[in-house]
Design a protein that fits this description.
- The complex is a heterodimer of chains A (about 325) and B (about 300).
- Chain A has about 325 residues and is mainly α.
- Chain A is built from eleven helices and two strands.
- Chain A has a two-stranded antiparallel ribbon.
- In chain A, a hairpin with a 2-residue loop joins β1 and β2.
- In chain A, α6 crosses α9 and α10 runs antiparallel to α11.
- In chain B, the strands form two sheets. Chain B has a six-stranded mixed beta sheet, sandwiched between helices.
- Chain B is built from ten helices and ten strands.
- The chains are: A mainly alpha (about 325), B alpha/beta (about 300).
- The structure holds adenosine-5'-triphosphate (ATP) and magnesium ion.
- Adenosine-5'-triphosphate (ATP) binds next to β1, β2 and α1 of chain B.
Chain lengths: ~325, ~300
């Protein structure tokens, strides 16, 4: 097997060196699982009849994915053409009258599937970062102080299980009321999605950080005391490194939740993104809708998987406890 | 060796709060230690040796009485009373070098330049013979090596008192012998004051100027103090059949196994020192391998 292929396979958790037996185990077995799934899907799809026709099978979904990409390319070409026309018109205007006021209108085409993927990715990452920025420091402070921990624990336990769907109306109303500006830097819909995502994915990071920080070994604390480390040094040199494995466990859970929550929030609030794409297709109800939704479902799954792998790779990089096998 | 009272415990009591009321672990512990003295604490498990050490370290507060170091009261931990912890307590995410560096940076942040610090860290690593593995992390080195790094970290703080809680307890006999020899050398050079907890009678006699034997808890206190007047430098092989050495050993053993029989142990006929060594003597004293280990 070539080294490039090996590098590509590594993120999937495959060992670097392998013999035939390992090759079968790590490639052939998952492949067969995939094939069995496709087979069952195919058979199942043929036997499910909806008001929009037969449930899409693998072949149809493949076709739809090609269509979606083609649509995206067409849309991009239209956009390019639009700006070219605009430039030509403006150039003509300028040639006729050098003082003419140039108008540049942005292109207002319908966002394509690929655009929606981009929007969702940006939103989920922004929401996740905002949540982490709050959750990690808060978790450290709460974890270091027993009183604060017992004070806030009930609140955290209360909010942790709240579904995004419950937050959404509140967040929407609050954002509309509070986030008023003539020239907003971010769209309101973006802010709403971001806050909803943050509110839902805050908790695993917060709790895991607090637990990680509060379970730091008494011996290490004693080392810190004997050295008379200042509070900040103590936190930076002892507390955070020793809690890193737990913090990352929390972050991974949070990112997973963030991605699930975002799709739901976009669907419900009609905020741009993959969720809206799914909802629009559902409302559309054309013969290709189900196929297109199925493409979205697979893409959502794939992105979730990739996000988790990225976090895992990060976690492996920063984790000092090599004795635990991360997976 | 200069002699002025350096460290003094006077009337130390400690009560630990427990669900069933306060538990008096120590009662009226008195001890005076001179500058440069090597003192061992010995006693049965659970009698309160670590508690004494932690009080001197400032990690526990005495309920009554207190500790004076050079005339000043000890009421919080500090690097001038460096601790070598029983289980090494190295930060697992740092290399051996970085573990020592953390301590050195803290203690000498205003008095040493970067280059001087580096030299000082390497010097201390050299003292414990860890030059070859100083950039390895704790999970990549053996138990004995971790313990040595722990000692290097404590030494690097240039403490006035070194507090060692069973520093060699978890090690095999050969490594233990090797580290005991290193410790004797280092102490002869630096003339630190050392308080060391041990369960090993031979170790106590070999290393100490005085052995403090503690009574059983609860409300444990200093039972007897044994002055060890053996010439230094001491060599374990020569001492093995030194009658003086064996007399000291017998004294400690008789304290531990006759006067302070562990509570709950079935009292049998009085045990004589000669009968005991088989059970508690961890070291085959004249193993030829020992010489190899020391040469290595
Ligand atoms: N933080 C604490 N809270 C309550 N009781 C304690 C605490 N620390 C120690 N003790 C009690 O004090 C007594 C002495 O404990 P200590 O750890 O000093 O014993 P030790 O002599 O060091 O024993 P070992 O040789 O096994 O290490 C024990 O009975 C122990 O249960
Ligand atoms: Mg102890």
């Amino acid at each position: 097997m070539s080294s490039i292929a090996l590098k590509l396979l590594k993120p999937l958790g495959l060992p670097e060196k392998f013999n035939l037996a390992q090759l079968i185990k790590s490639l052939v077995v998952p492949m067969s699982g995939m094939l069995v799934f496709l087979f069952i899907w195919n058979i199942g799809a043929q036997n499910i009849h909806t008001s929009l026709g037969e449930f899409p099978g693998p072949a149809q979904v493949y076709e739809e994915s090609k269509n979606l990409i083609a649509e995206h390319n067409r849309e991009r070409q239209k956009e390019v053409a639009f700006y070219e026309r605009l430039d030509i018109r403006n150039a003509k205007k300028l040639a006729a009258n050098p003082d003419a006021v140039i108008k540049t209108r942005p292109y207002t085409g319908k966002p394509t599937f690929i655009d929606q993927i981009g929007t969702s990715l940006v939103t989920v990452l922004a929401g996740f970062f905002a949540a982490s920025l709050i959750a990690i420091p808060a978790g450290i402070v709460i974890g270091l102080n027993k009183t604060l921990y017992s004070a806030f624990n009930p609140v955290i336990q209360l909010f942790k299980p709240v579904s995004p769907l419950a937050w959404l109306p509140l967040v929407t109303m609050v954002v509309s009321a509070v986030y008023v500006s003539d020239d907003p830097m971010f769209a309101k819909s973006f802010v709403t999605s971001l806050i909803t995502v943050s509110l839902c994915c805050l908790w695993p990071t917060l709790l895991n950080t607090a637990v990680g920080v509060s379970t730091i070994s008494a011996d290490l604390n004693n080392v810190s005391k004997v050295l008379r480390l200042a509070w900040l040094t103590h936190v930076m040199k002892i507390v955070i490194p020793s809690a890193i494995p737990m913090i990352f466990t929390g972050l991974r859970l949070s990112l997973g939740i963030a991605w699930m929550v975002l799709i739901a929030a976009e669907m419900l609030a009609q905020n741009p993104g993959l969720g809206k794409f799914v909802w629009d297709e559902f409302q559309n109800g054309s013969s290709s809708s189900l196929g297109r939704i199925m493409v979205a479902v697979l893409v959502i799954g794939l992105i979730g998987f990739v996000l988790d792998r990225v976090m895992l790779a990060l976690q492996k990089k920063v984790s000092w406890d090599k004795s635990v096998e991360l997976r | 060796m200069t002699t002025k009272t350096h460290l003094e415990l006077t009337g130390v009591d400690i009560d630990f709060p427990t669900p069933s009321g306060p538990f008096k672990a120590l009662k009226n512990v008195n001890l005076k230690i001179d500058q440069g003295e090597f003192v061992s604490l010995i006693g049965h498990s659970g009698c309160g040796k670590s508690t004494v050490l932690n009080i001197v370290a400032g990690l526990y507060q005495a309920t009554k009485g207190g500790v004076l170091l050079d005339g000043r009261e000890v009421n919080q931990p500090g690097p001038e009373r460096a601790v070598v912890f029983q289980n090494h307590s190295l930060l697992p995410w740092l290399t051996a070098y970085q573990n020592v560096e953390l301590a050195v940076k803290q203690v000498f942040k205003n008095s040493k330049s970067k280059a001087e610090m580096k030299e000082w860290i390497e010097h201390n690593m050299h003292l414990v013979h860890m030059d070859h593995a100083m950039h390895k992390r704790p999970d990549e080195i053996s138990g004995g090596m971790k313990q040595r790094v722990g000692i290097a970290r404590a030494l690097a703080m240039e403490p006035t008192v070194m507090l060692m809680d069973e520093p060699f307890g978890a090690l095999d006999a050969l490594t233990r012998a090797h580290l005991q020899d290193s410790l004797m050398e280092i102490q002869a050079d630096l003339n630190n004051t050392v308080i060391m907890i041990t369960h090993d009678v031979d170790e106590a006699v070999l290393l100490s100027d005085r052995i403090v034997m503690m009574t059983n808890g609860p409300a444990a206190t200093v039972g007897e103090i044994l002055d060890i007047k053996l010439e230094r430098p001491r060599h374990r092989l020569e001492l093995a059949d030194d009658p003086e050495y064996n007399r000291y050993r017998a004294a400690v053993l008789s304290f531990l196994y006759e006067k302070q029989r562990k509570p709950g142990e079935v009292p049998t006929e009085p045990v004589t020192a000669e009968e005991i060594p088989e059970q508690i003597n961890h070291e085959p004293e004249s193993t030829p391998l020992l010489a190899d280990e020391q040469a290595a």
